[in-house]
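thought: user wants a sequence for this fold. calling inverse folding tool.
action: design(structure=
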Protein backbone atom coordinates (compact mmCIF):
# COMPACT_ATOMS: atom_id res chain seq x y z
CA UNK A 1 0.00 0.00 0.00
CA UNK A 2 2.86 2.34 0.74
CA UNK A 3 4.25 1.67 -2.74
CA UNK A 4 0.89 2.44 -4.34
CA UNK A 5 0.69 5.70 -2.39
CA UNK A 6 4.15 6.59 -3.59
CA UNK A 7 3.12 5.99 -7.20
CA UNK A 8 0.02 8.09 -6.70
CA UNK A 9 2.05 10.97 -5.28
CA UNK A 10 4.54 10.66 -8.15
CA UNK A 11 1.75 10.85 -10.72
CA UNK A 12 0.27 13.86 -8.98
CA UNK A 13 3.63 15.61 -8.95
CA UNK A 14 4.18 14.83 -12.63
CA UNK A 15 0.71 16.13 -13.48
CA UNK A 16 1.41 19.29 -11.50
CA UNK A 17 4.71 19.80 -13.34
CA UNK A 18 3.01 19.34 -16.73
CA UNK A 19 0.32 21.84 -15.75
CA UNK A 20 2.98 24.28 -14.59
CA UNK A 21 4.95 23.97 -17.83
CA UNK A 22 1.74 24.42 -19.83
CA UNK A 23 0.82 27.52 -17.80
CA UNK A 24 4.29 28.98 -18.31
CA UNK A 25 4.03 28.28 -22.03
CA UNK A 26 0.66 30.03 -22.21
CA UNK A 27 1.99 32.95 -20.21
CA UNK A 28 4.94 33.26 -22.61
CA UNK A 29 2.58 33.12 -25.56
CA UNK A 30 0.40 35.79 -23.97
CA UNK A 31 3.50 38.00 -23.57
CA UNK A 32 3.80 38.27 -27.34
CA UNK A 33 1.59 41.19 -28.28
CA UNK A 34 0.51 42.29 -31.73
CA UNK A 35 -0.81 45.28 -33.64
CA UNK A 36 -3.61 44.78 -36.11
CA UNK A 37 -6.54 46.39 -37.84
CA UNK A 38 -8.02 47.09 -41.25
CA UNK A 39 -7.31 49.10 -44.36
CA UNK A 40 -10.44 50.39 -46.08
CA UNK A 41 -11.52 52.92 -48.68
CA UNK A 42 -13.15 56.15 -47.54
CA UNK A 43 -16.87 56.63 -48.07
CA UNK A 44 -16.19 59.22 -50.80
CA UNK A 45 -14.05 56.75 -52.73
CA UNK A 46 -16.62 53.99 -52.34
CA UNK A 47 -19.34 56.29 -53.71
CA UNK A 48 -17.14 57.16 -56.70
CA UNK A 49 -16.70 53.54 -57.75
CA UNK A 50 -18.47 52.34 -60.86
CA UNK A 51 -20.11 48.92 -61.20
CA UNK A 52 -17.53 48.06 -63.86
CA UNK A 53 -14.58 48.79 -61.56
CA UNK A 54 -12.73 45.73 -60.30
CA UNK A 55 -13.19 44.60 -56.71
CA UNK A 56 -10.93 46.31 -54.19
CA UNK A 57 -8.00 44.08 -53.23
CA UNK A 58 -5.65 45.30 -50.49
CA UNK A 59 -3.17 42.41 -50.66
CA UNK A 60 -0.56 44.67 -52.30
CA UNK A 61 -0.60 47.08 -49.32
CA UNK A 62 2.26 46.80 -46.81
CA UNK A 63 2.03 47.74 -43.13
CA UNK A 64 5.28 48.29 -41.23
CA UNK A 65 6.23 48.32 -37.56
CA UNK A 66 8.91 50.98 -37.04
CA UNK A 67 10.91 52.32 -34.16
CA UNK A 68 10.50 55.99 -33.28
CA UNK A 69 13.66 56.80 -35.26
CA UNK A 70 12.31 55.09 -38.40
CA UNK A 71 13.98 51.66 -38.25
CA UNK A 72 11.72 48.94 -39.72
CA UNK A 73 11.35 46.08 -37.20
CA UNK A 74 8.74 44.06 -39.08
CA UNK A 75 6.31 44.29 -41.95
CA UNK A 76 3.34 42.39 -43.32
CA UNK A 77 1.05 42.33 -46.33
CA UNK A 78 -2.65 42.99 -45.91
CA UNK A 79 -5.19 40.32 -46.62
CA UNK A 80 -7.39 40.96 -49.70
CA UNK A 81 -10.12 42.34 -47.39
CA UNK A 82 -7.66 44.77 -45.79
CA UNK A 83 -6.97 42.96 -42.51
CA UNK A 84 -3.41 42.93 -41.19
CA UNK A 85 -1.59 41.76 -38.04
CA UNK A 86 2.01 42.31 -36.94
CA UNK A 87 3.38 40.43 -33.89
CA UNK A 88 5.39 42.61 -31.50
CA UNK A 89 7.96 40.87 -29.32
CA UNK A 90 9.21 43.93 -27.41
CA UNK A 91 7.30 46.35 -25.25
CA UNK A 92 7.65 50.07 -25.83
CA UNK A 93 6.67 52.87 -28.19
CA UNK A 94 6.57 52.26 -31.94
CA UNK A 95 5.01 53.59 -35.15
CA UNK A 96 2.70 51.67 -37.48
CA UNK A 97 3.12 52.99 -41.04
CA UNK A 98 1.18 52.08 -44.18
CA UNK A 99 2.82 51.87 -47.61
CA UNK A 100 0.75 51.55 -50.75
CA UNK A 101 1.16 52.28 -54.46
CA UNK A 102 2.76 55.61 -55.35
CA UNK A 103 0.12 58.31 -55.67
CA UNK A 104 -2.35 56.80 -53.20
CA UNK A 105 -3.30 58.92 -50.17
CA UNK A 106 -3.96 57.67 -46.63
CA UNK A 107 -5.60 59.02 -43.51
CA UNK A 108 -3.59 58.62 -41.40
CA UNK A 109 -0.41 57.37 -43.07
CA UNK A 110 1.13 56.37 -39.74
CA UNK A 111 0.00 55.89 -36.13
CA UNK A 112 2.08 55.97 -32.92
CA UNK A 113 1.48 52.90 -30.74
CA UNK A 114 2.37 51.79 -27.21
CA UNK A 115 2.87 48.08 -26.60
CA UNK A 116 2.56 47.01 -22.96
CA UNK A 117 0.83 44.33 -20.87
CA UNK A 118 -2.57 45.56 -22.14
CA UNK A 119 -1.57 44.96 -25.77
CA UNK A 120 -0.97 47.32 -28.66
CA UNK A 121 -2.75 50.59 -27.84
CA UNK A 122 -4.92 48.66 -25.43
CA UNK A 123 -5.73 46.01 -28.09
CA UNK A 124 -7.62 48.56 -30.17
CA UNK A 125 -7.78 48.14 -33.95
CA UNK A 126 -5.38 50.45 -35.78
CA UNK A 127 -7.18 51.30 -39.01
CA UNK A 128 -6.12 53.20 -42.12
CA UNK A 129 -8.37 54.85 -44.70
CA UNK A 130 -7.50 55.00 -48.37
CA UNK A 131 -8.75 58.46 -49.45
CA UNK A 132 -7.71 59.28 -53.03
CA UNK A 133 -5.50 59.01 -56.10
CA UNK A 134 -3.08 61.34 -57.90
CA UNK A 135 -3.28 63.32 -61.15
CA UNK A 136 0.14 64.20 -62.56
CA UNK A 137 1.53 65.87 -65.64
CA UNK A 138 4.13 68.28 -66.93
CA UNK A 139 4.55 71.81 -68.27
CA UNK A 140 6.89 71.38 -71.24
CA UNK A 141 9.63 73.95 -71.84
CA UNK A 142 10.91 75.01 -75.27
CA UNK A 143 14.17 73.32 -76.34
CA UNK A 144 16.39 74.91 -79.00
CA UNK A 145 18.94 72.14 -79.54
CA UNK A 146 21.21 69.56 -78.00
CA UNK A 147 23.03 72.27 -76.07
CA UNK A 148 19.99 72.38 -73.77
CA UNK A 149 21.02 70.59 -70.57
CA UNK A 150 17.47 69.35 -69.94
CA UNK A 151 15.79 68.39 -73.20
CA UNK A 152 12.87 66.80 -71.30
CA UNK A 153 12.55 69.56 -68.74
CA UNK A 154 10.19 72.39 -68.07
CA UNK A 155 9.86 75.53 -65.96
CA UNK A 156 9.47 75.49 -62.19
CA UNK A 157 6.94 77.50 -60.14
CA UNK A 158 4.20 77.42 -62.76
CA UNK A 159 0.87 77.49 -60.92
CA UNK A 160 -1.32 74.60 -62.06
CA UNK A 161 -4.91 74.50 -60.83
CA UNK A 162 -7.38 71.63 -60.72
CA UNK A 163 -10.98 72.81 -61.06
CA UNK A 164 -14.28 70.99 -60.92
CA UNK A 165 -16.68 71.26 -63.90
CA UNK A 166 -18.30 74.31 -62.25
CA UNK A 167 -14.96 76.12 -62.18
CA UNK A 168 -14.43 75.85 -58.43
CA UNK A 169 -10.87 75.30 -57.25
CA UNK A 170 -10.20 71.76 -56.01
CA UNK A 171 -6.42 72.02 -55.60
CA UNK A 172 -3.41 73.98 -56.84
CA UNK A 173 0.29 73.12 -57.03
CA UNK A 174 3.54 74.62 -58.35
CA UNK A 175 5.63 72.75 -60.88
CA UNK A 176 8.93 71.23 -59.76
CA UNK A 177 12.38 72.10 -61.13
CA UNK A 178 11.68 69.72 -64.03
CA UNK A 179 8.27 71.22 -64.83
CA UNK A 180 6.31 68.33 -63.29
CA UNK A 181 3.16 68.69 -61.20
CA UNK A 182 1.04 66.29 -59.19
CA UNK A 183 -2.27 66.60 -57.39
CA UNK A 184 -2.81 64.14 -54.54
CA UNK A 185 -5.83 62.81 -52.67
CA UNK A 186 -8.18 63.26 -55.64
CA UNK A 187 -11.54 61.49 -55.92
CA UNK A 188 -12.43 59.96 -59.33
CA UNK A 189 -14.45 62.32 -61.53
CA UNK A 190 -14.23 65.05 -64.19
CA UNK A 191 -11.87 68.00 -63.77
CA UNK A 192 -10.42 70.98 -65.66
CA UNK A 193 -6.75 72.03 -65.61
CA UNK A 194 -5.41 75.59 -65.78
CA UNK A 195 -1.76 76.76 -65.77
CA UNK A 196 -0.36 80.28 -65.26
CA UNK A 197 2.86 82.16 -64.53
CA UNK A 198 3.51 85.89 -64.14
CA UNK A 199 6.54 85.96 -66.47
CA UNK A 200 5.98 83.07 -68.88
CA UNK A 201 3.79 82.68 -71.94
CA UNK A 202 2.03 79.33 -71.55
CA UNK A 203 0.31 77.84 -74.57
CA UNK A 204 -2.42 75.21 -74.38
CA UNK A 205 -2.48 72.48 -76.99
CA UNK A 206 -5.26 69.94 -76.54
CA UNK A 207 -8.14 69.54 -74.11
CA UNK A 208 -7.77 70.72 -70.54
CA UNK A 209 -10.51 68.34 -69.33
CA UNK A 210 -9.40 65.32 -67.31
CA UNK A 211 -11.46 62.24 -66.48
CA UNK A 212 -10.01 60.43 -63.46
CA UNK A 213 -11.05 56.80 -63.12
CA UNK A 214 -10.52 54.54 -60.14
CA UNK A 215 -6.74 54.84 -60.24
CA UNK A 216 -3.93 57.36 -60.70
CA UNK A 217 -4.23 59.65 -63.73
CA UNK A 218 -1.44 60.76 -66.09
CA UNK A 219 -2.19 63.92 -68.11
CA UNK A 220 -0.95 64.27 -71.69
CA UNK A 221 1.39 67.18 -72.43
CA UNK A 222 -0.99 70.10 -73.00
CA UNK A 223 0.90 73.05 -71.45
CA UNK A 224 3.89 74.45 -73.36
CA UNK A 225 6.23 77.39 -72.69
CA UNK A 226 7.51 79.04 -75.86
CA UNK A 227 10.76 80.29 -74.32
CA UNK A 228 12.52 82.37 -71.70
CA UNK A 229 14.04 85.85 -71.33
CA UNK A 230 17.70 86.81 -71.66
CA UNK A 231 18.27 90.23 -70.09
CA UNK A 232 21.17 92.47 -69.16
CA UNK A 233 22.33 96.07 -68.99
CA UNK A 234 24.99 98.38 -70.43
CA UNK A 235 26.63 101.49 -68.92
CA UNK A 236 29.38 104.04 -69.53
CA UNK A 237 31.05 105.28 -66.36
CA UNK A 238 28.06 103.83 -64.45
CA UNK A 239 25.56 105.79 -66.56
CA UNK A 240 23.00 103.79 -68.60
CA UNK A 241 23.49 103.89 -72.37
CA UNK A 242 20.68 103.98 -74.91
CA UNK A 243 20.93 102.41 -78.35
CA UNK A 244 23.55 99.66 -77.89
CA UNK A 245 22.80 96.67 -80.14
CA UNK A 246 23.13 93.09 -78.90
CA UNK A 247 23.22 90.12 -81.29
CA UNK A 248 22.37 86.56 -80.32
CA UNK A 249 24.18 83.56 -81.86
CA UNK A 250 24.18 79.81 -81.26
CA UNK A 251 25.99 76.78 -82.68
CA UNK A 252 22.94 74.52 -82.65
CA UNK A 253 19.80 76.63 -82.13
CA UNK A 254 18.56 77.39 -85.63
CA UNK A 255 15.63 79.71 -84.99
CA UNK A 256 14.10 81.84 -82.25
CA UNK A 257 11.09 84.12 -82.09
CA UNK A 258 12.40 87.61 -82.90
CA UNK A 259 9.80 90.28 -83.77
CA UNK A 260 12.49 93.00 -83.99
CA UNK A 261 14.46 91.12 -86.66
CA UNK A 262 17.80 89.35 -86.61
CA UNK A 263 20.47 91.67 -88.07
CA UNK A 264 24.16 90.99 -87.68
CA UNK A 265 27.08 92.34 -85.74
CA UNK A 266 29.92 93.85 -87.78
CA UNK A 267 32.10 91.11 -89.22
CA UNK A 268 29.75 88.31 -88.13
CA UNK A 269 27.13 86.14 -89.82
CA UNK A 270 23.41 86.77 -89.53
CA UNK A 271 22.31 86.55 -85.92
CA UNK A 272 19.32 84.65 -84.55
CA UNK A 273 17.97 87.85 -83.05
CA UNK A 274 19.03 91.28 -81.86
CA UNK A 275 17.92 93.67 -79.14
CA UNK A 276 18.65 97.34 -78.36
CA UNK A 277 19.25 98.85 -74.93
CA UNK A 278 16.63 101.34 -73.72
CA UNK A 279 17.00 104.61 -71.80
CA UNK A 280 17.67 102.63 -68.62
CA UNK A 281 20.50 100.79 -70.35
CA UNK A 282 18.63 97.46 -70.19
CA UNK A 283 17.99 95.03 -73.03
CA UNK A 284 15.95 91.85 -73.29
CA UNK A 285 15.44 88.91 -75.62
CA UNK A 286 12.09 87.16 -75.18
CA UNK A 287 10.87 83.61 -75.90
CA UNK A 288 14.36 82.12 -76.22
CA UNK A 289 14.38 78.30 -76.00
CA UNK A 290 16.65 76.31 -73.71
CA UNK A 291 20.15 76.15 -75.16
CA UNK A 292 23.64 77.66 -75.28
CA UNK A 293 24.17 81.09 -76.88
CA UNK A 294 26.76 83.77 -77.52
CA UNK A 295 25.87 87.42 -77.08
CA UNK A 296 27.86 90.08 -78.99
CA UNK A 297 27.43 93.85 -78.34
CA UNK A 298 27.88 96.57 -80.97
CA UNK A 299 27.57 100.34 -80.54
CA UNK A 300 28.13 102.94 -83.23
CA UNK A 301 27.55 106.66 -82.88
CA UNK A 302 27.14 109.17 -85.71
CA UNK A 303 30.88 109.43 -86.35
CA UNK A 304 32.40 107.00 -83.86
CA UNK A 305 32.47 103.26 -83.19
CA UNK A 306 32.58 102.55 -79.48
CA UNK A 307 34.33 99.64 -77.86
CA UNK A 308 32.02 97.57 -75.65
CA UNK A 309 33.43 95.13 -73.13
CA UNK A 310 33.27 92.30 -72.70
CA UNK A 311 33.24 91.79 -76.51
CA UNK A 312 31.12 88.64 -76.14
CA UNK A 313 29.37 86.70 -73.39
CA UNK A 314 28.36 83.03 -73.30
CA UNK A 315 24.79 82.61 -72.08
CA UNK A 316 23.17 79.34 -71.04
CA UNK A 317 19.39 79.31 -70.99
CA UNK A 318 17.85 76.57 -68.89
CA UNK A 319 14.14 76.31 -68.24
CA UNK A 320 14.11 79.72 -66.61
CA UNK A 321 14.91 83.35 -67.42
CA UNK A 322 18.63 84.13 -67.77
CA UNK A 323 20.08 87.39 -66.45
CA UNK A 324 23.61 88.53 -67.32
CA UNK A 325 24.93 89.76 -64.00
CA UNK A 326 27.99 91.56 -65.42
CA UNK A 327 27.18 94.95 -66.91
CA UNK A 328 28.54 95.74 -70.37
CA UNK A 329 30.85 98.76 -70.40
CA UNK A 330 31.08 101.28 -73.28
CA UNK A 331 34.47 102.84 -74.06
CA UNK A 332 35.15 105.31 -76.88
CA UNK A 333 37.64 104.39 -79.58
CA UNK A 334 39.49 106.85 -81.76
CA UNK A 335 37.87 105.70 -84.94
CA UNK A 336 36.26 108.31 -87.18
CA UNK A 337 33.75 107.20 -89.75
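)
observation: tool returned 337 residues.
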Amino acid sequence: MALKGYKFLSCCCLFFIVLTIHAVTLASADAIQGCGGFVEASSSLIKSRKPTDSKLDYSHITVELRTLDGLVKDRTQCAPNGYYFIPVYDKGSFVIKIKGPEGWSWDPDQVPVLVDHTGCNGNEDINFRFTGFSISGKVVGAVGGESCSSTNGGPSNVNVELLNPSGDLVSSVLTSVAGSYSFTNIIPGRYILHASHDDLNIKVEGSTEVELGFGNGEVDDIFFVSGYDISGSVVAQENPILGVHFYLYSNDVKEVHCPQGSGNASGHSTALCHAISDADGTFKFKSIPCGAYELIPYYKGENTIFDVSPPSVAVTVKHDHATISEKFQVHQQDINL
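thought: summarizing for user.
answer: Here is the designed sequence. The first strand starts at residue 33 and ends at 41.
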